[in-house]
Amino acid sequence: MARSPGGRWPRKREVAALWLLHERGPTLNLGEALGVLREELCVTKRTASNLLKRLRRLGAVKLETRGGGVVVEAVDPAEFIGRLASSYIAFRKGRCRGGG
After folding, report:
1. What pTM was estimated for this model as a whole?
2. What gap in Å lies between CA 67 and CA 42, rounded to an integer?
3. In angstroms, what CA-CA distances link 7 with 22, 27, 44, 99?
4. CA nearest to 21, candidates 11, 6, 31
5. Is the Cβ–Cβ distance between 34 and 45 less than 8 Å?
6. Closest CA relative to residue 51, chosen from 12, 98, 6
7. Per-residue pLDDT tens for 5-58?
């Protein structure tokens, strides 16, 4: 079975984390981002770090080194979900046309 392009859809916790990071400012340093996730989602430092890693793999955040520190840039959640939805819709249309 063919997989949908664009990877998997984010889970509820990942959507909440992206929303919080973007709401606090689309650009935060790594410590601030981890602090926001720990406080607002009531997770451990390790879980917050893993959340950021998953969001990076999904393309929802970018981690960059600036001035000796790591900066987290969060994508707009609506834009992110819009990209996923449009790639999924294109995938479904292709299957519909090809299958009959």
Report:
1. 0.84
2. 30
3. 21, 24, 26, 22
4. 31
5. yes
6. 12
7. 556 889 999 999 999 999 998 899 999 999 999 999 999 999 999 999 999 999
DSSP string, 27-95: EEEHHHHHHHHHHHHT--HHHHHHHHHHHHHHTSEEEEEETTEEEEEEPPHHHHHHHHHHHHHHHHHHH
| Contact assessment for residue 30 and residue 71, using Cβ atoms and an 8 Å cutoff | yes
Structure tokens at 46: 């390790």
- Cα–Cα distance for residue pair 55/41, rounded to 1 Å: 15
Q: Within 10 Å of residue 66's Cβ, how many Cβ atoms?
A: 10
Per this entry, what is the length of the chain?
Answer: 100
